[in-house]
Amino acid sequence: MGYGTDKSRFLLKVRHFLTQHLDHIAIQKLRRNEQLTPMELTELERFFRDQGVASDEDLDRIRGEGGIGVFIRSLAGLEREAAKAALAGFMEGRTRTANQIEFVNLTVDHLTERGAMDPRRLYESPFTDFDGQGVGGVFSLEDEKLLVQLLRDVEHRAAA
User: Which of 5-19, 90-104, 119-133, 144-158 has the lowest mean pLDDT?
Assistant: First the structure.
């Protein structure tokens, strides 16, 4: 059963596989927001192929959608402490309002669940529940740019 055949079944299969292999060093690194090397990504692909989780065709599709690291992270998420650490520099040394703190906590929740976050989500619900402009209405332009950059950094760590 391949990725192209039935995507939802494939994703369930991969999620099940990941829960059984959370002790794999590369998967741990992904969940901890540690940078992966190209060799580790190649090893993950080989591991998926050898374990019968993904075919070469599946892996080609995954590569086209951002790569195996981004794919695994999207299913396994980030450890909560890693998500908090990724945004710690954004919070440290600043006095934040209750809405700003809640906004960042919602971002941490998203990272914990999904492993990465497209910065465009900061301008959509539920982030627009704080302000109609999303992040731009809650934070200064400088802070907005910093938060967007931090989210991009999180995603890039899943790729080599």
Answer: 5-19
Calpha distance 121→107 (Å, rounded) = 10
Q: Which residue has the tokens 């301008």?
A: 123
CB count in 10 Å sphere of residue 20: 10
Q: Which long-range contacts (CB under 8 A, 24 or more apart) does 57-62 make?
A: 57/2, 57/3, 57/4, 58/2, 58/3, 58/4, 58/10, 61/3, 61/4, 62/3
DSSP-derived 3-state class of residue 153:
helix
Count other Cβ atoms within 10 Å, centred on residue 60.
Answer: 13
DSSP secondary structure letters along 32-83: TTPPPPHHHHHHHHHHHHHTTS--HHHHHHHHHTT-HHHHHHHHH---HHHH
Q: How far apart are CA 158 and CA 34, in angstroms?
A: 8
Cβ of 88: how many Cβ atoms within 10 Å? 12
- Gyration radius from the chain CA atoms: 17
CA 53 to chain centre: 21
**Token digits of residue 15:** 């999620």
For the stretch 83-93, pLDDT in tens is: 999 999 899 88
Q: Model pTM greater than 0.85?
A: yes
**Tokens, residue 119:** 């910065």
The tokens for 24 are: 């794999």
